[in-house]
Amino acid sequence: MSNWKTQKGDEWRYDNGTIHAIGDLNSAECAFLVGDITCSNREITEKHLLNFLRETKESFSESGIFIKQSRLKSSAKEVLMSLENKGLVCSKASDSPQSLIEVVSVPAKKWWSLW
Hints:
Elements: E1 4-8, E2 11-15, E3 19-26, E4 31-39, H1 46-59, E5 64-68, H2 74-85, E6 90-93, E7 100-105
Parallel strand pairs: 4-5
Antiparallel strand pairs: 1-2, 2-3, 3-4, 5-7, 6-7
């Protein structure tokens, strides 16, 4: 069961008790745009961000996943880079005129990953 719930139309809200996020689905361009990602009471950990990205890719599997860089805290950017360096996430800067990070892939959970 996904923690992404529709608000109205193409507006979505994510809440798993730890991570909270908002997003917009652009079905014409097959793109899901994540605006804000916050963590209740603490900084986002690798485990939390990895689980969030994995669930987002599964929930919107027919769409590209993009994160607004301007809305991502620097600590979350560092966590994303760490996950990428460990090979747990593949992302790249988008060709969009907006400053976006495209989440290309989040490989299936491995026994050695962050649990």
